[in-house]
Fold:
Amino acid sequence: MPFRLRRWSAAPAPRRIAYVIGIVLFAGAAAGIPALPTAVVYREWDTALHVAITMLVMLAAGRLTMVLAGRPESLRPKDAFGSVAIAWVAVIAFGSLPYLLTGEFTITDALFESTAGFTTTGATVVADLASQSHGLLMWRAATQWLGGMGIIVLSIAVLPFVGAGGIHLVRAEAPGEDVDRLTPRLRGTSMRLWGLYLGFTVLVAAALAAGDMTPFQALAHALTTVSTGGFGTESTSLTGFSAYTQWIVVVSMIVAGASLPLHIRAMRTPSLYIRTPESRYYLMSLAAGSALVIGGLTMGSVGVPIRTALFTAIATITGTGFVVANYAVWPSAVTGVVLLLMFLGGMGGSTTGALKTYRVAIALKSAASEARRLARPHAVSITRFGRTPLSDEVVSAVRAYIIVYLLAFGIGVVLLLYAEAAWGSGMTLVSGVSAAASAIGNVGPALGIVGPSGTYAVVSGPGKWVLGLLMILGRLEIYPVVLLFTATFWRK
Structure:
């Protein structure tokens, strides 16, 4: 009797979740598309073999899971949120294989590097990037590129996906983003977003290659700039590159920090960049953050070029994580500003992390509205975003998310400091607070021993697990992960 694969007879929810996991693993193998040819071109046969094995394992595991689970006709919001969280953990685990196969990474370090890659957090445990193969460095860059836009969005664009409920997956993978459909069908919207993302990447790579970067460096940095990831090819990040290259990255980070759907709409109506309230608030936050850093350095009589200060502020706000100077040694007033900027983030609909511009703006406007209500109890005070009045439900949701975000950050700080006290060599409060803020904000470099001149290799194993969890919480905006630990999710 011939052997046949049979779809399991589990409850509908596990099948839906398994299908999403399978398709994310299948799509995640795309990280090898630039990495494998790179390894071959540089004759790095061991790396080429490692990447090829990883791709085959991810493709096989993804396809097998999809076949066994069967394609669901629809997804409920609860299934979508839970499956996205589990799928991201799975793709991070499989994505750590190229690091493990080198024999140079422990399991914890490999998972940390993979987590930092897919969550677009520019944190690394590799002290000397020059010692790593070109193929592995390209794998790191490609994981950030995939994680920036979102693997779910890629899956919807190029693979057969669920019919109804796909929008729930997009919202679960990037709940703070503008997921309004740009075309009548969600797949068409996903293809347009990925088309713009790819085009922007090619443009940035060409601009960087026209400077002092090699084609390899230009492509790797383009992948991690448009994804606001921050993984580079040099241990000194962008410090050793020309002013031209740094200015190209500055402009690219500003563009990447804006909403991708806004870019598509603005192709027809460029005035939307000014007319859209969140866009104005985003540009104002970049200007204010840059002014504070530049002003602090000026008052501190620190001989740092304006370009360096501007670069640092924008890289921190957008969570890109590139560095051009060791800002950890700047005056305390400036490093304090840098720490606060880690909480901002870019626009909803961008590849950035942290709180996002619209949430910060709504929270501030809500606070102002509350102050007016206290001053004039009988007056009607309405919270507006631009000219649009906001409902109490929207304002409450923003407040709740900020509270949960800060709570997760605070718990992360405590757990990290406890872990370092018990298993590490000790960590100062500045290092612990900044590391947690950087991890949950998907920034990368922090302050102190994990600042721009250091790496996360100095953090203990348990500490890296805490930071890895914060990275995932920040990338998926907390709720999909928290949902897994509730009885509601597991109840039939």
Q: What stands out?
A: The beta strands are 384-385, 388-389.
